[in-house]
Design brief:
Length: 104
């Protein structure tokens, strides 16, 4: 099921402890996944029986941003977990920090 995300929306994983907040959302609907399962709105409980997919078990790190620049999607991890983030089965990359200007 595809979801239309909005900035500020909070979602959580159905298979691990991961929680993220949407910083930038794409205009199109997407399937946001964590650990191989679709992510759920923060107030929706996870159904029992869902298991972490080994192919998506790279983990998420607290305070790190994950993005897909082509889609215009950026997420901020607010609770770390064992599952890795993906959109429509394509893993999201951790966004790197911008270098500071030289001070000489």
């Amino acid at each position: 099921m595809s979801t239309s995300l909005k900035p500020g929306a909070r979602v959580h994983s159905a298979v691990c402890e991961t929680e993220v907040i949407v910083v930038r959302a794409p205009a199109d609907e997407i399937v946001l996944q964590c650990g191989g399962a679709e992510m759920l709105p923060i107030d929706e409980p996870a159904a029992g029986g869902a298991a972490l997919d080994a192919a998506f078990s790279g983990g998420t790190l607290l305070g790190k941003r994950y993005a897909d620049e082509e889609l215009g999607l950026e997420l901020l991890c607010t609770k770390a977990g064992a599952g890795s983030l993906a959109v429509d089965g394509t893993p999201l990359e951790q966004k790197s920090a911008k270098p500071l200007p030289a001070s000489d």
